[in-house]
Amino acid sequence: MIPDKIKDFLSILKAGLEGIDPSKIYTITVPLKSEDSELVFWDVMYTIYKDFLYRDNRWHLFFEGKYNELRVSGRYLHRALEILNSEFTEVTHKVWIDGHPIVEEHKEFFAYIFHYYSIINITNLLRDSDDKEIDDDFIMSFGDRVLHCFMNMISPGARNSTNLSRYNPIGFEAILTSQIAVGRSYYNGYLTGAESAKRLEVKEDDSC
After folding, report:
1. For the whole prediction, is pTM greater than 0.70?
2. SS3 85
3. Which own/partner pairs from 43-48 qualify as long-range (CB within 8 Å, at least 24 positions apart)?
């Protein structure tokens, strides 16, 4: 059996020969073309995670409906692609350049934040239990702690440099979280409406 350190060294060597930068993070896009694709994807993620991904402290995963995005460090890219390409077609990859300016500017911070969110999810789904659902209480409680702790930690500097400086720490958190909630609700509503409009257009075209 080849030791993990040797496997990692060989992966880095192969990545270099193929022009892959081991120090960068790459986005792997996996199209989901059927209802079964999501289940297959999780089976593949189980294999990838147990085999080597657990050693990558920057990997993370996003779910976009018709496709999933797995981001991995360059040293693990080739091994991840080998496994994903064996189960899915039209898998693509590129250096991670985020579409959100704040994420792109602070990419290294967000990589670790996204990583630990993904760890919470995958360790729950891969645990040895028949009950693998994350219930509402867990989501609400965990989300509340994440948001509250961020607001609490950032509040001293933020209160001195924003138009929220007139509020005390509790008021600062309340106002800002409300603004985020309203903005996210508006954006999600826009996306839902746009998706409904597309489905309606397709339905009307089919009826012609």
Report:
1. yes
2. helix
3. 44/83, 44/84, 44/87, 44/88, 45/70, 45/122, 46/126, 47/83, 48/79, 48/80, 48/83, 48/84
Both tokens of residue 160?
Answer: 């001195």
- How far from each other are the two terminal CA atoms of the chain, in whole angstroms? 62
Q: Among 125, 147, 182, where does a domain finish?
A: 125
pLDDT single digits (tens) 2-41: 666 666 656 656 655 566 787 899 999 999 988 788 889 9
Q: Work out the pLDDT band at 61, boundaries 50, 70, 90.
A: very high
Query: Is there a domain that residue 131 lies in?
Result: no
**Domain count of the fold of the chain:** 2
Distance between CA atoms of residues 185 and 27, nearest Å:
27
Determine how many CB atoms are found less than 10 A away from the CB of residue 29. 17
Q: How many CB atoms lie within 10 A of CB 4?
A: 12
Q: Any alpha helices (H) in the chain, and if so which ranges?
A: 4-17, 37-51, 74-85, 101-105, 107-125, 136-159, 169-207
Q: Tell me the two tokens of residue 178.
A: 């409300």
Q: Are residue 93 and residue 158 in the same domain, yes or no?
A: no
Question: Where in the sequence is the domain holding 10, given as residue range(s)?
Answer: 4-125
| 73 close to 58: Cβ distance less than 8 angstroms | yes
Spatial strand order of the sheet with 25-31 comes to: 60-63, 67-73, 25-31, 92-95
